[in-house]
Amino acid sequence: MPERKPLIRKHGGYRKLKSFHIAQLIYDVTVRFCDRYIDRHSRTHDQMVQAARSGVQNIAEGSQASGTSKKMELKLTNVARASLEELRLDYEDFLRQRGLPVWPREDPRRQTLIDRRPATADDVAEWIRSVHEACGRSGLSGQSGQQQLSTASTKSTPSTYPEISANAALTLIAVVSALLSRQLNAQADAFGQEGDFTGRLYHHRKANRDAP
Fold first, then answer.
1. Nearest to 87 by CA among 40, 131, 59, 53
2. Which residue has the higher pLDDT, 178 or 147?
3. Which pLDDT value is given to residue 179?
């Protein structure tokens, strides 16, 4: 007789997920960003911090729930992605309302942050400082950074820090959103193949009844 699979599948392990680590980094970065650039008593401050926290918490909760409910895992992972999309809009609004640009996907500064693989908010802060200083040395403003170095007309100023910081967060959000989309596809496939706990329990009980 073939060995029966356990009713409760292997679950948890979210601390090994790249999506969890990047979402956690986004949360830490967002707390710092909001404390520095958003009024601490404003609703926006609380909403951005809570959206970032929701991204982290729902990835973890979905992973824990996967042992008994692939459907719940799917739902919570999707909530995490939706929370981070809400956070993306908040960062974009921050830039738009201040006349600052959202860097396009092809902006090379985005790739330099991705290539650095920051693990902590301090790593991101160091990258922000390096970009700011590079703008000053080259004569680039934050807003013209995607152009050739020789075409810039103004130097970086302290006001470029919020632009660079917000775009750093947007870059990280784009990375984790892509990871979560792949995660959701994999979870949907697993749900289709394995079913859910209720179905497994039914087959388990039936097998016990039919056993000689």
1. 53
2. 178
3. 96
CA dihedral (71, 76, 78, 81) in degrees, to 10, reads -160
> For the chain, how many residues are written?
212
Residue-range domain boundaries for the chain: 14-206
CB of 49 closer than 8 Å to CB of 34: yes
pTM of the model: 0.77
- Dig out the tokens for 110 from the structure: 């985005």
CA 57/CA 77 separation, integer angstroms: 10
Q: Which residue has the tokens 């302290």?
A: 158
Mean pLDDT of 173-182: 96
* Model confidence pLDDT, tens digit, residues 44-72: 999 999 999 999 999 999 988 866 677 88
Check: CB of residue 50 under 8 Å from CB of residue 153. Answer: no
- Point out the least confidently predicted range of 102-111, 156-165, 201-210: 201-210
* Tokens 């459907």 sit on residue: 71
Nearest to 71 by CA among 207, 205, 209, 199: 199
Q: What are phi and psi of 138, to 5 degrees?
A: -90, -10
Cα 9 to Cα 4, 34, 81, 208, distances in angstroms: 12, 39, 24, 19
Nearest residue to 31 (alpha-carbon basis) of 14, 3, 56, 10 = 56
Q: Of 53, 153, 44, 137, which is closest to residue 91 (Cα–Cα)?
A: 44
- In tens, the pLDDT along 181-206 reads 999 988 777 655 665 545 544 444 44
CA distance 69 to 64: 9
